[in-house]
């Protein structure tokens, strides 16, 4: 049994919560736009870096190490998502479920060991 | 125990008695939205004050003490000050993404906030996959931070955003796995069910060793997830000015500030839900008189007390441990927490299968 506040669907309430977030940002921006001062100065629009004129764009190539962790994350996160349905039904699935998930879990651990041995976890 | 869903039912009946059903739904949705907005803002203001006071106490200072009694109105004044600051328009930014980023950050924290169990019957969204929904939604926040850093076209923000992305994405795994450990123990992902399952004993006592390990990992990963304490290198002020929100001015910066404090509350709230019974009062099996006395304390107070106590612990971390380097941070997650977490999950399965829990 799922108790619901006011008997409204949960999905509707999730949309309401998301819209509340949008409303918070939009309202605060409108209020700030109305009451905050405005002054023009060409220097103001420059990047806040170190005082001297900025050299080059920042939307450039960056260190590949971050991508590596993103890929590893993707692999593990997708695999952990598959663990959730099993985790909920662990008691009812019993031994069969345990054996199946043990194989899956083994592959997951092997993936980690492989990445570790390949040196993907070292920050270079 | 007080059951506050009765109040909502009464209001629903009263509204239905004088207006059309569609109007009732609209009014109730508006009501939910307004309550969420107020709770969000008030809690953020309280947390800013709370953190400043706690930090001051750790450093033998007084902290804010001028505005209002004991300085309680300091954060209100600060928010007002931030609201009337100029919103500087920058030259070389990606305007659309720059404006979009605060929305994503706030929406993510607002949705998580709505999922938390505030008390017996006070919970806005109650999916039967509640805890999974919470984890899924909280990862939208990373997107907002990455966009904020990238669209600002500033070297500091870009480095801050990338660090933040790598950190939050990595620690999300530990967070997810320690949640799975507790889901195995509870046998459900619904937040109401998890609360109800802790009627007799809280999970941290019932699940003894694996639950305690899961709690420790959760609190470490949660601290990293909120970019706080020893893991604050996305906004390390000594090297990156202010990290990913360097270019944001006025209330635009305020949104990141609000979301950061709310995320602290959400992490502490989820920890109290998974390990300390959510809104469930402290019950000790066999001590009937004691349990009955505990039932008289309202469930909302229990939840807020637990969440604030756990946030105190997270703030404590900040003043105890030095900041980590990025390579230390990533190896802590991938080489220590993740293998320990996987082993802990196996341990929890053994404990549940052989009935070794209380």
Give me a quick take on this structure.
Chain B: It comes from Muribaculum caecicola. Chain A has 124 residues and is an all-alpha fold.
Q: Major beta sheet of chain A, specifics? A: none
Helix share bin of chain B: over 70%
Mean pLDDT of chain B: 85
Please state roughly what percent of the residues of chain A sit in beta strands, choosing from under 5%, 5-15%, 15-25%, 25-35%, 35-45% or over 45%: under 5%
CATH homologous superfamily placement of the largest domain in chain A: NADH:ubiquinone/plastoquinone oxidoreductase, chain 3
Averaged pLDDT of chain A: 80
Please tell me what the overall shape of chain A is: flat
Protein name (chain B): NADH-quinone oxidoreductase subunit NuoH
Enzyme class (chain B): oxidoreductase
Keywords (chain B): Oxidoreductase
EC number (chain B): 1.6.5.11
Key features?
heterodimer, A: 124 residues, mainly alpha, Methane Monooxygenase Hydroxylase, Chain G, domain 1, 2 domains, 63% helix, flat, B: 358 residues, 70% helix, 0% strand
Explained architecture:
The complex is a heterodimer of chains A (124) and B (358). Chain A has helices at residues 10-35, 65-88, 90-117. With 124 residues, chain A is mainly alpha-helical. Chain A is built from three helices and no strands. The model of chain A has no long low-confidence stretch (mean pLDDT 80). Chain A has two domains: 8-37; 61-124, NADH:ubiquinone/plastoquinone oxidoreductase, chain 3 (Methane Monooxygenase Hydroxylase, Chain G, domain 1, Up-down Bundle), CATH 1.20.58. Chain B has 358 residues and is mainly alpha-helical. Chain B has one domain (91-353). Chain B contains 15 helices and no strands. Chain B has helices at residues 5-18, 21-58, 74-83, 95-115, 130-138, 140-151, 155-186, 191-197, 203-206, 208-225, 237-240, 250-275, 288-295, 299-318, 326-353. The model of chain B has no long low-confidence stretch (mean pLDDT 85). Chains A and B meet through helix 1, helix 2 and helix 3 of A and helix 1, helix 2, helix 4, helix 7 and helix 12 of B.
């Amino acid at each position: 049994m799922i108790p619901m506040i006011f008997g409204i669907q949960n999905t509707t309430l999730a949309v309401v919560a998301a819209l509340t977030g949008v409303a918070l940002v939009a309202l605060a921006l409108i209020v700030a736009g109305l009451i905050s001062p405005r002054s023009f100065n060409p220097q103001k629009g420059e990047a806040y870096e170190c005082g001297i004129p900025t050299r080059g764009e920042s939307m450039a190539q960056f260190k590949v190490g971050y991508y590596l962790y993103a890929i590893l994350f993707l692999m593990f996160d997708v695999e952990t998502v598959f663990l959730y349905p099993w985790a909920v039904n662990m008691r009812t699935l019993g031994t069969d479920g345990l054996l199946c998930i043990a194989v899956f879990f083994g592959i997951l651990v092997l993936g980690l060991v492989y990445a570790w041995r390949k040196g993907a976890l070292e920050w270079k | 125990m007080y059951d506050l869903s009765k109040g909502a039912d009464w209001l629903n009946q009263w509204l239905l008695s004088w207006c059309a059903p569609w109007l009732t739904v609209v009014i109730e949705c508006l009501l939910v939205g307004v309550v969420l907005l107020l709770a969000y803002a008030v809690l953020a203001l309280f947390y800013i004050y709370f953190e400043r006071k706690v930090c001051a106490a750790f450093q033998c200072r007084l902290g804010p003490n001028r505005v209002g009694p004991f300085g309680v109105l300091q954060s209100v004044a600060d928010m007002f000050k931030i609201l009337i600051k100029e919103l500087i328009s920058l030259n070389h930014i990606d305007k659309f993404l720059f404006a979009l980023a605060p929305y994503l950050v706030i929406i993510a924290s607002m949705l998580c906030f709505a999922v938390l169990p505030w008390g017996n019957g006070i919970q806005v969204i109650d999916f039967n996959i509640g805890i999974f929904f919470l984890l899924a939604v909280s990862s939208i926040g990373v997107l907002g931070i990455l966009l904020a850093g990238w669209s600002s076209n500033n070297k500091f923000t870009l480095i801050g955003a990338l660090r933040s992305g790598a950190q939050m994405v990595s620690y999300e795994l530990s967070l997810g796995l320690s949640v799975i450990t507790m889901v195995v123990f509870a046998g459900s992902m619904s937040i109401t069910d998890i609360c109800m399952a802790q009627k007799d004993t809280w999970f941290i006592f019932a699940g003894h060793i694996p639950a305690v390990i899961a709690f420790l990992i959760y609190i470490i990963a949660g601290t990293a997830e909120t970019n706080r304490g020893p893991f604050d290198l996305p906004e390390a002020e000594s090297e990156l000015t202010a990290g990913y929100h360097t270019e944001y001015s006025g209330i635009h910066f305020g949104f990141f500030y609000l979301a950061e404090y709310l995320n602290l509350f959400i992490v502490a709230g989820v920890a109290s839900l998974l390990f300390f019974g959510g809104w469930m009062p402290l019950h000790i099996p066999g001590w009937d008189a004691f349990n009955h006395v505990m039932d008289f304390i309202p469930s909302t107070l229990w939840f807020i007390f637990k969440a604030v106590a756990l946030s105190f612990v997270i703030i404590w971390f900040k003043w105890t441990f030095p900041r980590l380097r990025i390579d230390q941070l990533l190896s802590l997650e991938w080489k220590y927490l993740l293998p320990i977490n996987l082993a802990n999950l196996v341990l929890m399965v053994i404990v549940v299968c052989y009935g070794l829990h209380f």
